[in-house]
Amino acid sequence: MSKVQLDDLTPNNLGMLKRINSVVLPTSYTDSFYTEALTVGQLAKLAYYNEIPVGAIRCCLEVAPEHTKPSRIYIMTIAVLSPYRENGIGGMLLDHIERYAAETFVPELSVHALTDDTEVIEWYKKRGFEIVDEVKGYYKRLTPAKDAYLMVKKLKKDQ
Amino acid sequence: MTARAPPANRKLSNMLMADFKQCLTLYEKKEYAEAIKRADHILTQKPDHGETLAVKGLCRYHQDSPVEGRSLINAGMKNDPESYIIWHVLALLERSEKNYHAALKAYQKSLTIDPSNQNVLRDLSLMQIQTREYEPLVITRRKQLTDKPEIRANWTGLAVALFLKGDYATAARTLAAYEESAPEKEPKDKTQSDDIENCELALFRNKCLIEAKEYDLALKDLEELENKTSKRHIPDQQSILEHRCDIYIRQGKTKDAQRLTRVLLRRNPHDRALYRQLEKVLGIQDNNQLKSVMYKKLAQKYPRSDCPRSMPLEFLEGQAFDEAADAYVSTLIHRRVPSAFMNVKHLYKNPAKALSIGAIAQRIFDGATEDLSGASDFLWSACFLAQHFSKLGDQNKALKFIDNAIEHTPTLVELHLTRAKILKRMGAVNKGAEAANAARELDLQDRYLNTKAAKYTLRANNADDIEQAIKLISMFTRNDTSGTGVQDLHDMQGYWFLSELARRQRRNGDGPLALKRHKAALNVFSEFEHEQLDFHLYALRKGTMNAYIDMLQWEDKLYKSKKFIRSTRGIIETYIALWDTKPDCGCGAVIPGSFPLKAVDYNASTTVKKKKKKKTNEGSAEAKQNPNGLPTPEHRHDADPEGLKLVKNVDLLETALVHAKKLAEVGDSLGLVFQAEIYLRQNKYMLALQSLNKLKASDAASPYASVLAKVAEAQLNGDDSTAQNLKDMTLKMLPKLFNETESDAVATARLAFSVPSYKELAGELLKGLVSENATAAALAVWAANSLGLELEDLAKEQYPELEVPLPN
Question: By CA distance, what is B334's nearest residue in A?
Fold first, then answer.
């Protein structure tokens, strides 16, 4: 059995998501970001290594204007504690979302990445994401505000 | 003795007699209002009918009018002192009041008038067990058996009584006689519960035979029991084996005892007592080398058991210890066992072993990489080392290890709990509470974490700690009666919470409320005692004598519990301090002055507040707050939310004395010291001296007690100046008396507060406390503040992180 396992987000382990995001990510998130994370079902997951939570993903569905069905899954946060990186834990979290997208017929995934964070951009590219747009000053809460790429991965229809 | 003719006023007309009978039936159905109606009807025609008065009294008692109830029964007794009904009624009242000795006497009196009453006979036997009057119990039970030999419970009842009295042989004979006379059920009619009952009975008889030293008979019985039914049908194989083994040990048949101990070990290789037993029957307790071989073999045989690996660490020394400890500790760390340190903590009494264990963890720590492959070793060895250094007193080093680990993996709850403990030991109680809460927030469904967070919060120094802690515990309790879980924790006998709350209230200077909580904590124990009553009959009916006797033996030790002693000390200390704070105490005390307590308004009327509360209770959720902003937990039934009834119109010293006597009774030597302190305050020097002499005789006399004795002597001789000098001496000694550091500070501050000439001395004593440990230092600083002394700088030198309690 793999030492890494994914588990659902619940009100009781929400503190883990908060803790992981707060130590890994440069921006901080509001309380509503976390309380709403409990309503997205399979779009939020914790990754456990030896029964310790070490990574987490939290996404949301985007419905394009004048559409009724969701057009893409947007990855709001994905984080893995630094000692546990480069062991496929982030990939597992992403795979889970991709699988979910395929099952629910959502055609694409999207994410924002810091323009100067080449490591992260490469990570997404390796997994089939492409840069489709550059948003100036996207990270308003950082001082100084930083730019972001919008990256998208189109999922194959027959998957 | 022939029955005397009933007094003229007892006789009722046939009509009224029918009413009286109905009245009794209604009482038994608990329809008290209806019963009282009948009684009143009789009383309008025969106002001095004693039995009616008594029954009415009992009904009134159960309608929450205990005072009226008792006076009605007394009136009835006066009119008709020879009625067995009235004595029976009185017995029921005393029993409900939990005055078991008084109830016993009343039952006895009722029985001398009407010797054939089976109910009274049965209830008398219950009181005799409850009060542990085993000799008369045997007589009662024998009478029950003679009257109704067809009931099985009467036979076992007599046997249990004989067993408790220590007459094991007769107990065994009684049970044998029953088995001979009782018809055995056909196998096809037997149910499983019959099997269990028969086995229980047989095992009980076996226990009697063993205690009576009838070993051969006992063995024969066990054999029969095993042969009687196929093995599958013997419900309690384990006990049969244990009995057999016990017999072999008592007989000195070591070979058989060894064999059976090994059989038992195979059944449960996790029972430490069995390993010790094996050492003993092998005769190698004192031979470390042989013991070591034995444990090595057993460790191979039972690879999943902790015992054969950890137990040798207690006796091994030197290199042998190092090797065994290495194997044991490194396995625990590699396996990520959260309790690893707890498993070896007891070995730290030996400094060499402590160092050796630390070195093992250090080696794992040094060898672990911080990446994924080494993460687990790194975390758990760091956590272990943090606990190791904390235990050795190096809190700074401990904190470094734990902070390092938390930075690596902030989602491991054990790390945060360890951090909380280290911070507490540094005196940083507020930060400690924060750390415990951080652990809790990571896993909200873990009750242990919730409990820890609440406890650390109660020990912190923020103004709203009590509210916060109650909010925390209420996440895991039933809150339907009052919105918070305090009531539920009373109902669930949550001793830890009640006692922590009491200590916090005491620290807050709220004497009455502290008393109330301490009382609630003690109540847990008296409930244990009173609830026995339900089992005296039940166990006989169900035929579970073995568990029942275990329970009685456990109850006999109940009040010797450390927890009971701690709470009782707390009550006595608070009562004495309250007395010392009273403006009119006259300060005839040996130790004038008091620990900071808020002034209590002894004239405050509780009824006004109650009215106000009733009004607010009907309102919104805010109603659950009393004027202090604290939740009033038991507001639904609580007639005394602030504990004022415990101090108003109460003789503080006499009440303290009752508790001090109980404390002495259970063997705590402080009980006698407290008694002396109380007597000296009451100017009863002779009694003080007697208490202290008793202490001397018990071989536990402290220097403090001998000085107290001299004070009493000097007072008796009218030698005031000597007495005064001696009082000065007691001041120096008192802090050394208490083993709990909190009490040290409490006592020191109590004796020094408000006595200007003692300030300097008190300062010296408090300085001594600072060097004890962080908790003591925090309290010493706090006590010093209330004396207008400055100790904070000195304390901060030793404990830079020290957080000092807020002044009241």
Answer: A50
Residues of the domain holding B174? 8-186
How do A44-49 and A4-8 pair as beta strands? antiparallel
Which 8-state DSSP code applies to residue B599? P
Residues of B in contact with A23 (CB under 8 A): 410
Nearest in space to B597 (alpha carbons), one of B619, B582, B617: B582
Q: Is A74 a catalytic residue?
A: yes
Task: Point out the residue among A12, A53, A87 whose CB comes nearest to the CB of B445.
Answer: A12
Class of the domain covering A4-154: alpha beta
Chain A contact probe: residue of B372, B419, B449, B450 with most A CBs at under 10 A: B372
Specify whether the CB–CB gap between B658 and B551 falls below 8 A.
no
Residue B89 lies in a domain: yes
Instruction: Count the domains in chain B.
Output: 2
Q: Which residues from A are below 8 Å from B441, CB to CB? A: 15, 18
Q: How far apart are CA B212 and CA B165, in angstroms?
A: 12
Catalytic-role residue among A34, A48, A84, A112? A112
- Cα of B469 vs its chain's centroid, Å: 23
CB-CB: which of B376, B408, B443 is closest to A50?
Answer: B376
| pLDDT tens per residue across span B429-473 | 999 999 999 999 999 999 999 999 999 999 998 889 999 999 999
Q: Which of B117, B152, B186 is the last residue of a domain?
A: B186
CA B132 to each of CA B33, B65, B135, B635, B801: distance values in angstroms, whole numbers, following the listed order:
36, 31, 9, 38, 54
Identify whether B580 is part of a domain.
no
Q: B596 falls in which pLDDT band (50, 70, 90)?
A: low
Strands A44-49 and A52-62: antiparallel
The residues spanned by each domain of chain A are: 4-154
Q: Looking at B186, B214, B241, which one is the last position of a domain?
A: B186
Q: pLDDT tens across A83-131, in order?
A: 999 889 999 999 999 999 999 999 999 999 999 999 999 999 999 999 9
CATH number of the domain enclosing B30: 1.25.40.1040
Most A CBs within 10 A among B380, B411, B415, B476, hence the mutation to make, goes to B411
Those residues with Cβ within 8 angstroms of residue A71's Cβ, 6 or more apart along the chain or in another chain: A62, A63, A64, A106, A107, A108
Is position A49 annotated as part of the catalytic site?
no
For B277-336, how does the pLDDT look when each residue is reduced to its tens digit (9 = 90+)? 999 999 999 999 999 999 999 999 999 999 999 999 999 999 999 999 999 999 999 999
CA B663 to chain centre: 13
Residue of A11, A54, A86 with shortest CB distance to B409: A54
Give the span between the Cα atoms of B241 and B247, in whole angstroms: 10
Residues near B475 by beta carbon (within 8 Å), at least 6 away in sequence: B444, B450, B485
Q: Is residue B792 part of a domain?
A: yes
Cα(B397)–Cα(A50) distance, rounded to whole angstroms?
A: 27
The reply to whether B110 falls in a domain is yes
Chain A: nearest CA to B635, how far in angstroms?
31
ipTM exceeding cut-off 0.90 for this assembly:
yes
E strands present in B387-515: none
- The whole-angstrom separation of Cα B508 and Cα B466 is 10
- Taking contacts as CB-CB distances below 8 angstroms, the residues of chain A near B370 are 83
Residue-averaged pLDDT of chain B: 85
Contacts of B256 (CB under 8 A, 6+ apart): B248
Which residues pair with residue A59 across a beta bridge? A75
Residues whose CB is less than 8 angstroms from the CB of residue A39 and which lie 6 or more positions away in sequence, other chains included? none
Q: Is residue B448 within 8 angstroms of chain A, CB to CB?
A: no
Site from B335, B406, B409, B440 to mutate, A interface, most A CB atoms within 10 angstroms: B409
The DSSP symbol for A25 reads -
Which residue among B408, B442, B444 sits closest to A11, beta carbon to beta carbon?
B444
